[in-house]
Amino acid sequence: MRVEQILKTSKLTERSRRLPSFKNEIETVYNLGQVLKNSPFNLVDALLQAAMDLCRAGTAGISILETTPEGAEIFHWTNLSGKLAKCVGNRTPRNFSLCGVCLDRNAPQLFAWPARYFQYLQNTMDVPIVEALVVPIYTVDLSPGTIWIFSHDEDVHFDSDDARIMTRLAEFTGSALGLIHALHC
Description:
- It is a single chain.
- By secondary structure, this protein is α+β, with helices and mostly antiparallel strands.
- It has a single domain, classed as Beta-Lactamase (2-Layer Sandwich).
- It contains six helices and six strands.
- The chain has helices spanning 11-14, 22-38, 43-55, 98-105, 120-124, 160-184; strands spanning 59-67, 73-82, 91-93, 109-112, 131-137, 145-151.
- It has a six-stranded antiparallel beta sheet with strand order 3-2-1-6-5-4, with helices on both faces.
- Helix 2 (22-38) packs antiparallel against helix 3 and helix 3 runs antiparallel to helix 6.
- The longest helix is centred in the C-terminal third of the chain and has 25 residues, at 160-184.
- The radius of gyration is 16 Å and the shape is globular.
- It starts with 10 loop residues before the first helix and ends with a helix.
């Protein structure tokens, strides 16, 4: 099997779009601003919850590119919300992962049934991943990463509106991660 067999990014624009809920998006930005003001260290988790709510996802996560002491590049699942929240801390190889494909292509990527190709997902997940939408994150001072959402329901498929929302959340997340890093230093 080749990664192209599970890569379905073109479906994002082919699927009928649902009407955007700009009211919900504005409320979400307001709520994220309140979290930033009152509890900035909870901002990343609030962003993941927003991704799940706005895109009807079952899991949302952030993966940051790291280099092990042995020199291997890996993605570290630093934050997770939803059905797979217990997998926080998992690591996936840079050169054989959803996140790696996303960063290689430098654009949002949609995968259908990704565990068919990335079989380690079958071994570590107790719920199926029907679709995965992965979007690159860039910060000024930190390593690149991704923000991603999973659908665990065969009736939930991501579309171009989800890609738009996740791209905006990725930009916000990059800024949030930079701010949190600065607060730690």
